[in-house]
Amino acid sequence: MRLIFILFYYLFNKIFSFNIDISSPTYKVGPLNSHFGFSVAEHFNGKNPILLIGAPKANSSQPGTISAGAIYSCPLNSYFRYKSTINDKWCSQTYVEYQNKERYKLPPRTKDDRSITIDSKGNDYQLLGASVSSSGKINGRAIVCAPLKRYHEGVSYTDGSCYVLGTDLTLTSIVHNCNGGRLSKQERHNSYGACMQGFSSSIDEEVILTGTIGAKAWTGGVHATFVDKSDDVFSINIDRTTLGFEEREGGIRENKLFEKGDYVGYSVKHGRFGFWYEDKKNFTIVSGSTRHNQSGSVVFFPFMSIQDQSYEEMLPTNDGFMLKGKQIGSGFGYSIEIVDLNNDGFDDLIVGAPYEFYIDEKGSEFHGAVYVYFSSGKFQSRDQNELVFKKPIILRGNLNRDEYGYDDFAVGAPFDDNGAGVIYIYFGSKDEKSFNIKAAQIISASKLGISPRQNPLKSCGFSLSGGSDIDNNGYPDLLVGCVLSDTVVALRSKPIINIITDHSMINTSLNIDGGINCPKGSKTCFEFTTILSMNPSYSKEKLVDYTKDVFICQLETLPSQLGVDRRAKIYGSKDGYTLNWECGKNLNKQSQRKSHKLFISKDNTDWLNPLKLKFSVSIKDQSKPTLPNEGEPLINLNNYPILNKYNSTHEVLISFNKRCGDDDKCESDLELGATFLDISQDKKGKFVTRVGEKDSINIKFIVKNKGERAYESRMYLQYNHDELDVPQLDGTKKLSSVNIESYENNIIIFSLGNPIEPGKIITFHVTFKLVKSEGQRTSNILFFKANVNSTSIEKNDKDNIWEEELEIIKEAELELSGVSSPQMNYFGTTIDSLPESELKYEEDIGPMVKHQYTVTNKGPFYVRDVSVEFDWPFRIDHEDGENNYALYLLETPTIIEADKSIRHCLVEDAYDYINPQKLIIDPSLKVENIIKQKGRNKREVEEGKIFNIPEIKISTKGFLGSKGLEPIEATDSNGSPIMIVDVHYYYTNIEYVQISSSGRIIVKPEQGVVDDQSNNFFTISTHAYPDRPKLQTQEVPILPIILAIIVGLLILGVIILICWKCGFFKRKRAGDGPLLHKAELQYEREMWHEMR
Q1: Most buried among 55, 663, 707, 996, by the most CB within 10 A?
Q2: pLDDT at 951
Q3: What distance in Å separates the CA atoms of residue 228 and residue 231, rounded to the nearest whole number?
């Protein structure tokens, strides 16, 4: 059993489990920072119970001492506050170091009562009260230890001392064994200079045990005293010790059985487990050694009471038998307890490992472990010591006072519950198999009835004591130390009413069809009789008034297991499943029987799983005790009895008569077969079919039962739910016993009948329609897998499965078309262009051109996950290294769906390609505003290639017109998506240019779509010209002009000379004067006419 945060715990016997009262605890609060409650013990001063509490850091009130420690004896009352003046009503300090208590009024002497020299400061910080133990019996004795008490003058040796007290807490003897003649201190702590006797202790009427963990450099050891009372007149003390015999043959250090620092004696107990030597006078001492082999161990020392000096030494068993820890640093053996968990007369052993660390399969961390070792229940031979204990259970008195006498035990986890502390209670059992590792009761200190005058409790469970009845109500109680809050809590046990719950029925199993006088609408019904009685051993206890009904009885139906319905209903119940009635009158004299009718409705289908009924009893009008004020009498818990936690509840499973043979176990043998209807196979045996958008797939299933009844028979059909619609049963072939029960994702469940009788054959048809669903995966292979089963036992499940693949051929015709808007365009010349650094507005660059692509599917089959990839001229690469934009992209290319919704292609490195100059764009010209709808940006880009136009190198930029996980769905010509690329001319230092972009359709081949790809490509071109010729700015050569002028003049002179020689200039014409006048007049008239 793994327990959270068990850093220290204490185990004890004879406590109660479920009946410990937490509503009315009794508190004792000690001096501040005194570690009040470091150790606790339930003790009896004669017959009067007292609480014996150690406070090892308290001031002893002896003059001349500092924090010597103190022992307090406290009566059981409601006075809880410590006062500086001793208040007997709260507690009284017990003076244990001197027989004469007057010595406490004087400073410590240099010699004790035995004339042994004591260090002058030997009582300071001696930790008196670090170990406290009591026999817990009336007129019993106790022991108190101070493990750091120092002896000798000049040199201080921490020998330690223990004080044996009588029933009245007076000193009877002192245990101090590290000052013997043979125990040398010459090598100081390497020999016997630091024994620390009393680090652990144990006492009963026969044996006194003390641990000496510091002996021989902290090898450790144990000292034991046995009181032999076999003589009627005298009793003899027999001492045994490991001290001084460590290196002897068989000693704890012989053959390095133990070494320095092993801490033998860290915990000590004794018992009789079944070793060969054990009897009434000889027993076994058990000691924890927490650092042995780094993981800890538990060693066994035989105690032989033979009156012979040769047996004075106490050595381990002849073979060195021990129990070893499982984990380094676990502290295995930190605490131990001896109990008889199964009342077989042989003691069992419980070992704590508080530092063991454990992580379960869910990743939860657990700290601390308890190991439970059941004895074999018989004596073993001398060479079979390893057989004394059975395999441990990883996790003392008879808590619940059960009739079997099993001892129970408790475990303290002082740092659980955020440091408040938790106590876990466990039951004994008849053997290790029936031992319940689940705690019977969990007591959290944070949930105790805390007095409002107290601070929150801390570290409760650091020390525990139990097994004694300190309030005289016949039930043992529990004492809890909360050391970090200097508080001790006494938890008392409530008395238990030991009733017995049972039932009776006429038949041990139910008939599925039958029953007498069953209610309307029921399939079957039956009688169930509840029986309430009292354990005869406790029938004389009058804890309640049996002259009237003091209990509430309840009968309820429960699911037999997780996922199973309750099914059975109780006649007369309001909700059908629960029925309450008053009961218990005269129960101490006779048992009570009550008959009930239960029925099962016709709608029930589960006849294999048994019914589960629960009959329980609770106390009527039960109240809780309250916490009394200081000084008030304690609450009498006899007025608050509780029912036995386990016998007050009775659960029963009721099976059905399933008519499946003598053993009532149904062994069915289902066989499943199936085939595709109207679908042929190819040469390889594969099923292949061509499908259109309205095609369907039909499967014929045949189920046969070749065995016994098959209850709750079902068929589970797995299919491609993203390709096929939810299947339907063919109505013309449908059977009443076959129904679609449920479907989820890709599995549909058919109920086939309840039951399917032997030899029955069930045939049914299932129809699938191809589903058209945007954004889902497509495939050309459909997978079908079906299996049948039932809640009966299947004898042969190899023929319960059918699986097949179907290849579907999907025909479609995708087409990509496009248009340029406009088809011809004009652009300004270089003189009109601004420098790149002065560009600011969209108007500062060239005119806009749009390339619009359309994807059309001409069918007949739909296609999903279609991508369209585009390229457009992006950059001009000059030989001198200068780069200019060819077409300037102002916004992301746009996809317009048939419903006018808009999506965008997400261009990779958009800052470099989409409006890299950050020009101001006219919002009214955006596609979104033109359509008046917003779209979604989607994915993805791909680099294009470089191609050549004469004398100009163009870099292209590509993108995918696809939604990625939500791709374009090309359905038909009426619902075709449109892709728009909106760009502007940028580079204009050309006479003419043809602008071309190209697109191509991409369909994933695994879809299995057959498509003619000849029209899956398209190119859009736009022609562009300058809007006016270019101006010539080149200089004209001057010299050729001058030479041309001179040559012209020479030719003109030659012509004039020839004309003159011929007399050309001497000829006269008639009317030369008037003609000139007429011409001038005509010119003036024309000019005047124009002016008018």
Answers
A1: 55
A2: 35
A3: 8
Cα–Cα nearest to 895, from 941, 935, 933: 935
Which tokens go with 1013?
């790809």
Q: What is the pLDDT of residues 137-149, one digit of tens each?
A: 999 999 999 999 9
DSSP string, 757-820: PTT-EEEEEEEEEB---TT----SEEEEEEEEE-SSEES--TTSEEEEEEEEEEE--EEEEEEE
In the predicted structure, residue 690 carries a pLDDT above the cut 50? yes
What is the pLDDT at residue 980? 65
Measured between alpha carbons, how far is 639 from 641 in angstroms, rounded to an integer?
Answer: 6
My answer on whether 363 and 220 are in the same domain is yes
Q: How far is CA 380 from CA 281, 286, 386, 430, in A?
A: 18, 17, 9, 20
Q: Are strands 801-811 and 781-789 parallel, antiparallel or unpaired?
A: antiparallel
Same-domain pairing of 635 and 557: yes
Contacts (Cβ under 8 Å, ≥6 apart) of 927? 891, 894, 896, 902, 980, 982
351 CB contacts (<8 Å, ≥6 apart)?
Answer: 288, 298, 323, 332, 333, 335, 336, 370, 371, 373, 392
Instruction: Tell whether 617 and 752 lie within a shared domain.
Output: no
Strand-pair partners of 747: 718, 744
CATH of the domain at 590: 2.60.40.1460
**Structure tokens given for 386:** 């390893």
Start-to-end Cα distance in the chain = 125
Give residue 732's identity as a one-letter amino acid code. Answer: T
CATH of the domain at 86: 2.130.10.130
Q: Per the structure block, which two tokens stand in for 408? A: 């129970």
More confident residue, 488 or 1089: 488
Indicate whether 484 pLDDT > 90. yes
The answer to whether 327 and 353 have CB atoms below 8 angstroms apart is yes
Report the Cα 194 to chain-centroid distance in Å.
49
pLDDT, tens digit, 9 for 90 and up, residues 725-751: 888 887 655 566 788 888 887 899 998
DSSP 313: B
Find out whether 398 and 414 touch, Cβ atoms under 8 Å.
Answer: no
CA angle 518, 523, 525 (to 5 degrees): 40
Nearest to 642 by CA among 14, 26, 25, 22: 22
Q: Locate 643 and state its tokens.
A: 């029912």
Examine residue 304 and state whether it is found in any structural domain, yes or no. Answer: yes
393 within a domain of the structure (yes/no): yes
Summarize pLDDT for 334-389 with one digit per residue, the tens. 999 998 888 888 999 999 999 988 887 777 777 888 999 988 877 776 666 666 66
Contact 265, 287 (CB under 8 A): yes
801-824: b (≥16 Cβ within 10 Å) or e: ebeeebbbebebbbbbebebeeee
User: Which residue segment(s) compose the domain that 713 sits in?
Assistant: 669-794+803-810
In 340-419, where do the E strands start and end? 348-359, 365-373, 393-394, 409-413
The pTM score is 0.64
Closest CA to 153 of 180, 125, 122, 128: 122
Dihedrals phi, psi of 524, to nearest 5 degrees: -155, 170
As given in the structure block, the two tokens for residue 814 are 């995708």
Report pLDDT digits (tens) over 892-934. Answer: 788 877 667 777 776 667 777 777 778 877 766 565 555 444 4
- Among 745, 776, 810, the domain boundary falls at 810
Q: Are residues 652 and 674 in the same domain?
A: no
Which residues lie closer than 8 Å to 1048 by C-beta, 6 or more apart? none
Q: What is the pLDDT of residues 1046-1080, one digit of tens each?
A: 888 888 888 888 888 887 766 555 445 554 445 55
